[in-house]
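EI: anyone free to look at a 193-residue chain?
SC: sure, send it
EI:
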Amino acid sequence: MKTRSLITIGIFNALLLVLLGIGGMISALFPPLFIILPIIFGLIGGPVFMYMIAKCEIRGIFAISGIIIGVCMLTMAPYGSMGISIILGGVFGEIAYGIAGSGKYVSAVIGYCLYILGYAFGEIFPFVFFTEAYIAQEAEKGGSTLHVVKACVEMLNVPLLAVICILSIGAAILGSFWGKKLLRKHFEKAGLV
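SC: here you go
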């Protein structure tokens, strides 16, 4: 069962990475989309996480997912801040899931909200606080993402960071509810409804 659960977690995190990659490529064409990626991720990731929680019989879903996605994002922002934030979001999500009572829908929603908050904070924080380092990093890469980073830096500030984090939590709640509706049969089987 543990092996099957780990494979399920791996497959769905690969799916999430593909969706994030597609979102990142599309946002290169329209930089404001990059800013709202955490909100979009909160919505589309909800069913994925709810399915993993219903199907996997091991502890650590949020932490494992945070580590997988976080390690893949370590080079995306200066000082590894995006990856570290996602990893911490996963760890805090796992802790909250355990404290609130593993196997309960409400605790799954709380854990997922913290996971998404880690992603939102990790994506936006470097634009606001590591501006020069972020621009220098992208200029050194020589890729086409420099204009996206500059456009996002011009749009973002601390109040907008807070708004995006709050909206991301709201999106995570809606995504979790959507996941519960889509996967009601799996939730009933797992005893989460």
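EI: Residues 2-20+30-190 form one domain.
SC: 👍
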